[in-house]
Amino acid sequence: MDSIGSLGLQQGEGAPSCPQEGLPCPSNSSEMVQECLQQFKVTGAQLRQIQTSLLGSMEQALRGQVGPAPAVRMLPTYVGSTPHGTEKGDFVVLELGATGASLRVLWVTLTGIEGHKVEPRSQEFVIPQEVMLGPGQQLFDFAARCLSEFLDVLPVDNQGLQLGFSFSFPCHQTGLDKSTLISWTKGFKCSDVEGQDVVQLLRDAIQRQGAYSIDVVAVVNDTVGTMMGCEPGVGPCEVGLVVDTGTNACYMEEARHVAVLDEDRGRVCISIEWGSFSDEGALGPVQTIFDHTLDHESLNPGAQRFEKMIGGLYLGELVRLVLVHLAQRGVLFGGHTSPVLRSQGSILLEHVAEMEDPSAGAARVHAVLQDLGLNPKASDAEWVQCVCMAVCMRAAQLCAAALAAVLSRLQYSREQQALQIAVATGGRVFERHPRFLSVLRETVMLLAPNCDVSFIPSVDGGGRGVAMVTAVAARLAAHRRLLEETLAPFRLTREQLAEVQAQMREAMAKGLQGEASSLRMLPTYVRATPDGSERGDFLALDLGGTNFRVLLVRVTTGGVQISSQIYSIPECVAQGSGQQGILLNWTKGFNASDCEGQDVVCLLREAIRRRQAVELNVVAIVNDTVGTMMSCGYEDPHCEVGLIVGTGTNVCYMEELRNVASVDGDSGQMCINTEWGAFGDDGSLSMLSTRFDASVDQASINPGKQRFEKMISGMYLGEIVRHILLHLTSLGVLFRGQQTQRLQTRDIFKTKFLSEIESDSLALRQVRAILEDLGLPLTSDDALMVLEVCQAVSQRAAQLCGAGVAAVVEKIRENRGLEELTISVGVDGTLYKLHPHFSSLVAATVRELAPRCVVTFLQSEDGSGKGAALVTAVACRLAQRTRI
Ligand code: ADP
């Protein structure tokens, strides 16, 4: 037995019964009545098929694989976030299409304080039938007149009123205030509106009317209004479900799943437009002859087939068709109908609600039937009640199947097996038929057993939600302005970068000449890069803080092989030579190939002893920049620049000896260690320095020093981001304005977070996880903003670095008098290597600023050891050549 059978959905055998168990049924019920009611029963399997088919249609539409008349439309609404609860202000809301043949105007005041509500004022206007079916302009003029009439009696001034337009028909939205009607539904059929922007039509009408100056800020449909107006409960409400005249739902989808949007971040509210769901395979088996008749006689035959089984506009009509059918066959009303019963639309949703309500009793049913010009017998009332219940129950069950499809979709897109979600419900069917919600809830529980769904009735029929959308739009626009203002100093123009390049060139020249400059331009005594002819075994010592690494570097025709061993530094040694630090030292004594096979530790001890005793004869003191250049240089003879972007940043390059004032000699070259981290320490970068750079600098151990490095390297980027986040929080733009202790903690925001947050492969959900780990109280917009902050900071870092490299390669090109220079840069450092965009931004900046240099970037492997060995190898090669 199907599990849904317990709800009475299974087609039953044996004694006839009402759709609702326990209800008194006439014992003399004819086969014909049973047959009629039976048609409205839906099995669990049928509901599951509808759920599956609808889910398939939804996913197809999201992927954009649909024909001109798709089963469901999945329309993006340009509502990207659910409310904060802090929205405030006064808003006018105009509702059209939410509640049948009426138009509603509301004045909504949002207080920005949770729990503190100001009741909206509203007025409902009945739309005459001839306006609903007449020319479009007439409808919009009618709306503008209603607006003025409503505002006339309110104490408002005519200044910048902000209006949210709730327009509940299928529309193609291209902006929050741009929406083109696809087709009329729900009994409307005005000419010259389909294919038009309804916001513009409303604006034009308001202007024609001329009484008020009103800004139409946002257009949404009633499902979105319902969702957005929901009082935030345990969590945000991310599904809106409306069953009124028609039916529809919306939910928050990940933007990257929506093919028509050119957006891969954040979420967007999707209006499903499920009223048009039409899969014959799934719906066919549950459609009755009455559904076919109803469709046939409707304003839009063949369209909105699903809606016509659920929407309030049609429930009364279905009941009417069944009653006419039964009367004409002599089963009801003594075989008589009445002119009222025979006329289309005479049974309204209200009638069905009244007759269906078991607590109202037979007398109420009787009264309604008499109003319809009928003369019911006692048993008639009971049967009519059964008919009403059968029609409504089917509607609730079908609606549940559709909602279950949405829940399945959310489970999938959120990658959450057990989903906890709030669904905002709205519309007269919910309000007037209490049983509708209970059947809906029970059926959803069976169809989507892993979802914990709470249903929350909408506030003010969604009007508050429309005001909320309008307010959110206003808030987001204000926050975006503040974010842009904050990040603007980080967005460097081409001119600013060219200026950095020029200043760097000048500082390089001065430094080389021995004049005052923030660039020290230290000669390294490395006179050549590898040319590939180096051969031999070399020993390298890599001296770290706590470890000594000894590397045996074998340079052969087959390439460079390195074997290494790590020794901890004996305390006496560490204390004996405070100078050694992180330098990598090469001594002449270690370069000979005859050390092969000797005891490495022995050599090391001897070296240290010699160093302490007689000041070791140092051939080259190689810093990491030089090591990086040399190690890449062995593979690529064009490699004449070394770049480090790790904890700190620095560059070295091959300069013409004649330009180096502090070293004798006019021919040949020498590698210059620029120590560019200190660039700008003379104040030359002050134009680019932001308040955040100043904060980071002030809090550092060396205020005023290494200004260039502090804008670029791994030790500082996280800190810059943290200071920006603090500022944006103080402006109320981030984290709802709540300052947390965590974010006040220095170095809490690691530079590696920038890499993680900016990684293309990471969903925003993971960005949220990183920030939540930091204990930051995140909203969905916050993650996006933090991402933008990280991007601005790392982009500036990479561009400044690129401007520096451009200065260096241009200098080399000019030194050599070349039209075009082909050169490679060896690079090391975790920030450069692991950040997802840093390296490509550096390269792009260099291309832009040094167009006559063809620059290749090579990432070094084990730059320090291998590079140091090669420094020695090259020194040996040069020495041999001199001897010859
Ligand atoms: P060093 O420059 O000290 O020789 P590294 O090249 O490994 O060492 O750089 C270390 C720096 O790299 C640290 O300051 C750290 O902030 C940064 N870093 C570590 N991991 C990442 C990452 N995944 N993305 C960007 N930067 C990182």
TrEMBL record:
Catalyzed reactions per annotation: a D-hexose + ATP = a D-hexose 6-phosphate + ADP + H(+); D-fructose + ATP = D-fructose 6-phosphate + ADP + H(+); D-glucose + ATP = D-glucose 6-phosphate + ADP + H(+)
E.C. number(s) listed in UniProt: 2.7.1.1
Residue stretches making up the Hexokinase C-terminal domain: 239-472, 641-874
Any single Gene Ontology cellular-component annotation: mitochondrial outer membrane
Pathway: Carbohydrate degradation; glycolysis; D-glyceraldehyde 3-phosphate and glycerone phosphate from D-glucose: step 1/4; Carbohydrate metabolism; hexose metabolism
Database matches in SUPFAM superfamilies: Actin-like ATPase domain (SSF53067)
Keyword Transferase: yes
GO molecular function: ATP binding; D-glucose binding; fructokinase activity; glucokinase activity
Region (Disordered): 1-28
Keyword Kinase part of the UniProt annotation: yes
Membership in a protein family: Belongs to the hexokinase family.
Name this polypeptide is given: hexokinase
Name of encoding gene: HK3
